[in-house]
Design brief:
The structure is a single chain. By secondary structure, the chain is mainly beta. The chain is built from one helix and six strands, in the order E-E-E-H-E-E-E. The protein has one helix spanning about 45, and strands spanning about 5-10, 20-25, 35-40, 50-55, 60-70, 80-85. The mean pLDDT is about 95.
Amino acid sequence: QNTKSGSVSFGAVSGGATHEKTITFASSITTTDWIPSVTLRGARGSIDRLTASLFDFTATQMKVVMKNITPAAATGANYIDWILVKKGE
């Protein structure tokens, strides 16, 4: 009850490009009560090229943008692990 979490996959991200992914929650939340966090997971050679940042957080979803910080493509099966933790817990 005090955490909500999940994983979502995304594909390749070209060198220097950005890619946006929207994560939709199973039920609505009150954003002032929850702290969001995201982590990248996948092949090391691919994930080492990427950064992920949260750029929108609403009662029903959060949006994450992945940025490829190298000229090489990040390929393969990549995932965002996300978690919401209830404040004060």
